[in-house]
Write a structure and sequence with these properties.
Elements lengths: L21 E6 L5 E8 L5 E7 L7
Antiparallel strand pairs: 1-2, 2-3
């Protein structure tokens, strides 16, 4: 079986970093602010997910 990589190769994961508009905000009882972000994935599908403020930075 042929493989793409061999032992010792330096590789990186294929990943999509969500980036898009803030659709909504919410705050927990503990004061943690979260944002609902929308983005388009590599398959062209629209995705939405809540992220805590500490997980985000301006684009």
């Amino acid at each position: 079986m042929a493989t793409t990589f061999k032992k010792g190769d330096v590789v990186k994961a294929v990943a999509v970093i969500p980036q898009g508009p803030v659709l909504a905000l919410r705050m927990s009882e503990e004061g943690v602010v979260s944002y609902l972000i929308e983005w388009t994935d590599t398959d062209g599908e629209t995705q939405q997910r809540w992220f805590e403020e500490s997980q985000l930075t301006g684009a």
